[in-house]
């Protein structure tokens, strides 16, 4: 009989199939971004901890310079996989693959850098924020300060109103869609530019509750029937070059229950709230859209839509 933590862990990315981790190895944007950030941040002789290591590839990147890397993984199948991969690669002996829960594990010594990639668009589903905040409390209690450097260092999240096509060979299906960021999607019309709704700095105390209310100036006539969520991970800040090493998640587009007609010049008011690590449906249910038609400003019509 599974306990509550074990049941929930099925949704954390801790027990996803092995082949999913193999797909992540083939994600060139993810791999190149993390390799560059880890190469920049890890210095010779450093002690590194990775929480939620999967195949162990990010720990292996760190092992190129680090003296010691602790790679923590909860899924026993992935533990075997990571240990097998380490044995096949140079510097793999520097990586100790630890079978443990990231919510509970602490390394036997202070570390300089913590890598944690439990990241979903909008910080939903996976427990990046909770894991890091839990780690900070336990680490400070055992070792005192300062805290290690975290990779990613920060996350910037934005939202954008869309007119989204939901016709699949004549079959209408308003579904959640994940879209590549470097591809033009003919069925997607951007009705206004994105607006940043949250910036999470992992070096600072974080709240798992995310809430936002903001306005958009509509640039095109259309029907607002979806909201796109954008998540940019700042993997490392390269201070001497005044630059960052980033990784952009796929866009996540959530359908609204009912589309609302709008015109260029209208003001679109959007609000939502959710918990970091929460479900996608919980965010869908919390989205509220108000369209203020600017055509007759003194008697502006307000149409309220709930997703």
Tell me the span between the first and last alpha carbons: 36 Å
- Compute the number of structural domains: 2
Number of strands: 18
Largest sheet: 7 strands, antiparallel
Please identify the top-level CATH class of the largest domain.
Mainly Beta
How much helical structure, as a percent, in the residues? 10-25%
CATH topology of the largest domain: Hnrnp arginine n-methyltransferase1
Assembly state here? single chain
Structural Rg: 21 Å
Helix-strand topology string? HHHEHEHEEHEEEEEEEEEEEEHEE
The CATH homologous superfamily of the largest domain is termed Hnrnp arginine n-methyltransferase1
Nearest-integer average pLDDT: 91
Q: How many helices in DSSP terms?
A: 7
User: Beta-sheet strand percentage?
Assistant: 35-45%
**Alpha-beta content class:** alpha+beta
CATH 2nd-level architecture of the largest domain:
Distorted Sandwich
